[in-house]
Amino acid sequence: MYLIYFDEAKPDAEHPHYHIGGVAIESENLASIESEISAISKRCFGEAGLSRSTEIHAAEIYHRKKLFKEWNDFEERIQVLKDILPILSRPDVKLIDIQVNPDKLYVGQDESEIAFMFLCERANGLVRGNRSVGMLIGDRESDRVSEAYAETLSGYRERGTEFMFGREIQHLVDSVHFTHSHLSRFLQLADVYTWFCQFRLRHRKSQDKRHRMVLDALRSDEVDLFPATYKEWPK
Hints:
Shape: globular
Distance between the termini: 33 Å
Number of strands: 6
Strand order of the largest sheet: 5-4-1-2-3-6
CATH topology: Nucleotidyltransferase, domain 5
Strand content: 15-25%
Low-confidence stretches: none
Order of helices and strands: EEHHHEHEHEHHE
Number of domains: 1
CATH architecture: 2-Layer Sandwich
């Protein structure tokens, strides 16, 4: 069975793309991957226990916020992100990249709903291709949002997805489960991956020194963030 952790990065005026990034991990590999992420937390904070005081978020690292506010050395902060890249590059970490451009949607279409639909389709196809089943796990924002996603997936499992060429969703089981990101190293891993996806698209032509430092790290021969499955829509 695969557990599929996902996170979002919302659009803004300078970057009109809504991203969902997912990491799909087979249950037998969870312990070793969690151990590697926890080791990074211990190096950063001196402890590896799950709490708000040991949480890893890519945007906070890059922009020197919250737990990383006192980290004045930019290269030291970026090294934390670099340390996560080998984990994301593991062959047993299957990556899912969903991008939706709200500027190209019709009036009344919601980018988050469409992105979640594509996530369900791509995650379903990924686990089906591996002759398995999967369960979706997201970052809890509110009970209202959690319930809406759960009801949406339930509808997809019963009737298929909603576009003209909608797909049957038969390999995602149960509901969408949600927990707070500080209580899951895997949600933190999904956060970092989603941030990398947005950062790479957003700054791909930038000559800013700090942007190039991250982009060069992503281009390393030892880094492989090519997704196992993806959707970019509309093109």
